[in-house]
Every structure is written in C-alpha cells, then in structure tokens.
Fold this sequence. Notes:
Blueprint: H1 33-38, H2 44-48, E1 75-76, H3 88-100, H4 110-124, E2 133-136, H5 139-147, E3 156-161, H6 166-173, E4 177-186, E5 189-192, H7 200-203, E6 207-211, H8 223-236, E7 239-243, H9 264-267, E8 270-274, E9 288-291, H10 295-304, H11 314-326, H12 328-352, E10 357-358, E11 366-370, H13 379-385, E12 388-389, E13 391-392, E14 401-405, H14 410-427
Parallel strand pairs: 1-12, 3-4, 3-6, 6-7, 7-8
Antiparallel strand pairs: 2-9, 4-5, 8-9, 10-11, 11-14, 13-14
Helix pairs in contact: 3-11, 4-11, 5-6, 12-14
Amino acid sequence: xxxxxxxxxxxxxxxxxxxxxxxxxxxxxxxxxxxxxxxxxxxxxxxxxxxxxxxxxxxxxxxxxxxxxxxxxxxxxxxxxxxxxxxxxxxxxxxxxxxxxxxxxxxxxxxxxxxxxxxxxxxxxxxxxxxxxxxxxxxxxxxxxxxxxxxxxxxxxxxxxxxxxxxxxxxxxxxxxxxxxxxxxxxxxxxxxxxxxxxxxxxxxxxxxxxxxxxxxxxxxxxxxxxxxxxxxxxxxxxxxxxxxxxxxxxxxxxxxxxxxxxxxxxxxxxxxxxxxxxxxxxxxxxxxxxxxxxxxxxxxxxxxxxxxxxxxxxxxxxxxxxxxxxxxxxxxxxxxxxxxxxxxxxxxxxxxxxxxxxxxxxxxxxxxxxxxxxxxxxxxxxxxxxxxxxxxxxxxxxxxxxxxxxxxxxxxxxxxxxxxxxxxxxx
Length: 428
C-alpha cells in the first residue's frame, strides 16, 4: 500500500514537543477518508504511542473543571471535559495558526465543510449536502435555537430524564413547556419509557429532544429504539432535535446510527447536533454544527439565532478540521484508555462499594452512579466534603445519583476511586 503522506509516530512525553504535522490531510491511496478518522487500518504501534498516562496540571489555567474548587483538596471529576492533551495534530495546527499572528473574523473554508461531509458519509453512510450544515459556537446553542422554533410560545417540548442539564432548561428559555419522560431500567441498561410518550400531552408536543449516545446513562440506542422514536414523531407531527455529540466515543462493539438516516420522512423533521469537542477534547474552542436537510426548518433554525448567536472563532474551525482529518490514531488510543477506565470504575463501584451501583457504559466517558442505597440527602455535596467533585444528579433531573467523569489518567482515576471508597466507608 502506498501513501501520499505518512502518519507520524508521536511520542508524547512531559515537556516534550509534539511531532509536526500539516493541518491539511492527504488521503492515502486505497484508503477511505474516514479510515484516518476511525483509525481503521492504523497500526497498533501508532495508536499505542500516544500518552494518556501523564497527569497534566490544569490548575490556575482558567479551567472550569479544575478551578471550581479553588485551593481546596477536592479532585474534580464532574464536568464532561477530559484531562488529556488534545491530539498532537490539533495542537500543531493551532500553533501554526497562532504563528500567523493575525486573528480577524473567520468563516468556514470549503475544505472544512467537505471534511465533515466526507466524514459523515464514510462513518455512517449518511450522504448530506454542504448546504445542510449550520455552524454553531456550541451544541448548547443549537439546543436553545431548536427549542425556539418548536411550535409556538407555550407549546411543549419532550425530553428524557435524566439528561444533560441544558435539555431541561432550553424549553423554558424559549417560552416552551417541558414534558419529562423517564429513562427506566431494563435489565442491565437504561431505556426510554415509550409508554410515557402515549399520553395526550406528549402526543400534542411540538418537539422531542433526543440525546444519543445518552448523557449521562451511557446508552447507544439501537435501531429498534430509534425507529420507535421516529414513528412517534411522524405519527404526531413533532420536530426532532438529536444531540449526537458523543457519537464517536463508542466503547462497545455497537454502531452509532444517526436517527436522520432512518428514512427521508424523519430526516426532513430532524435537527442533528454534532461537534468534535467531546471526541477530541476541544470544548473550550467552541465549534459545533447542525445538520438540517429540510430548507424551511434550516431557515427557521438560522433565524432563531439572528442577532444573538456569535460566529465561530478561527481557532475552533482550525481545530475542527485538524481533528477530523488527522485525529484517527489518537482517537483509537483514547478509546482503549477509556475502556480500561470504564471497566475499572464499574468493578470498583459495583463490586467494592456497597450502597453504590452503575449500569454498563456503552459510550461516553461518564459513569451514572446510583447512591440511593446510602440514604444520603445530598450525595454530590457529601462526596465533595470527602475530596471528590462529582456532578449532582439533581441537575440532570434525578435525585440520588452522581455522574463521574473517567476521562482522565489512570493515576487520577485511582485517586478518585480511593476517595470514593473512603467516603462510602465513612457513610457506614
């Protein structure tokens, strides 16, 4: 097999410079575009060369995650950003752009849009037009814009519970009414309670907000589950907004299926939200996008942001393209690391900590932990007092739970689980 450009073997050590790669990718002969992104055909040598073991000190960097607790001895394992350095190709592309020295207003170049189009085609068999893409400064912005076009003021928007907190606030900000449908336990996993969608209020709603892969439950919805949701929306004339930001962080041998690919009828009423931010750990660079095939829905969606939503900054665009074009080997290595961390977390929580339990995590780097058997009035506050900062389940719409971010080094994870273990022991 001949290549137009070789994939560098990055050896990332503390304080060591990264190998330099161009921010533009050239596709190897005989390889599909997304083979670079997915890591398909990439040798294990390249994947194993990345460093996910070094602990990067993020204190004092303006980090929302790490500076939340100030100088207190609380280990932050809450908000969904990872503690790993971003892919070297992203760092290199940003460094090259900084060296240019002029930071004017930015727009997405055609090559960036082509990158996204090619990626969706190769990864999911999803053939989209460049005009369907609406660039956004963040996925939460897209959620709020979507709710603003859901029917009229006072109409209802449906969301699962528990769910990522902006799902619960966006309808109210748009003057809409929230209908919560519970995620229920089904054997060893969580699933949406479809029976609760059959109420008159739900059938009269204007929009359904979908989170797949699900945050915080870690589910990758099956084709059957997605078809049932699609049938509900079609039968009751609902718009559908699908947050698929964690779609490349699949830890099990399952496939992510964008709901818009099911059929043209559901695609025409779907706003799909995606971003490189979670996958490649670049949420602070503020670059996301919506895919909307229906011209009328797309026009209304854009109008909802007029005069309010800012443009994406130059660094967000640069990082997005570099990540999607060169991030495949790094992502493959990341997923191996996350699988190990998930398994370690599940073993400790389920086998060693009486009073705590969690279901299997199919995707994301987030563990949704049930603490109700401990009888704690405020679990997140209790664990914080014992030195570990977790996300409060109440913010996701469910009391008695906490969410733990295992997107960190093995050493950090072990320290966090040590503190969790001590907190549980003190509770008894």
